[in-house]
Amino acid sequence: ALLSDAHFSEVVDPRIAMGLIYNEDVATRRLARFRDVIIRYKQLRETSYPIQKLTVAVLGDMLSGDIHEELEISNESPMPVALVKLAYLLHDMGLSLRQEFSDVEFVFIPGNHPRLTKKPRFKQKTTTNWEYVLGKFVEALAQKSYTVTVPLAMVYVHKVFGWRIGMSHGDAVKSNSFAGIPFYGMRQRREAIQALMRHLGQPGIDFLVM
User: What mean pLDDT do residues 74-103 have?
Assistant: First the structure.
């Protein structure tokens, strides 16, 4: 299950945005729906085959971040407070999912919005990021009830049911798009990663999720 871009704590004022609204309450209800849809998916299929393990790839920008001045001013909560709120929401999700699946794991990939510096970094990109802290916070809350992985790799390869899944936020993808989807940029990114792995003598990936 792929989860990303909740931008928790961002506020969209309906008076300004043509009636559109977003805030921490909306984000919380969306996370609850995400959990409920996963559980329903399992219930509809378990009469045909058992689903025992769930991997949740948390692919970044779960926090709004404050690298932009307007977000720092308009976010509903300061970043440390938003982080604590979201960590407990994700932990509650993990506990409820664990009641449905015998094995649940979360993999946290930091995005670009919660970074600590306005200018993106290449080195220490994953650790100078509020979402690294978020993942570690959830890991501490989880204890042994479910598994949490917070990798340091910018493109992390995770095995799911025998498949090698490359996980990345996707902020390195070029914005050239077709029909509103950056298809060519994503394809170039995937091919570049595969070529690099071949050059390094490493096995390739079966899928790249961003």
Answer: 96
Phi, psi of 115 (to 5 degrees): -65, 160
Q: What is the pTM of this model?
A: 0.89
Looking at this protein, which amino acid is placed at residue 199?
Answer: H
- Answer whether 64's CB lies under 8 Å from 39's CB: no
DSSP conformation class of 55: E
Please give the pLDDT value at position 158: 96
pLDDT at 179: 67
Summarised one tens digit per residue, pLDDT across range 4-20 is: 999 999 999 999 999 99
Helices (H), the chain: 24-45, 69-74, 79-98, 130-142, 183-199
Sequence-distant (6+) residues with CB within 8 A of 2 are 57, 59, 209
User: Facing residues of 108 across strands?
Assistant: 58
Cα–Cα distances in Å, from 99 out to 41, 49, 103, 130? 15, 18, 9, 29
Question: CA torsion sign, 22 to 25 to 31 to 34?
Answer: negative
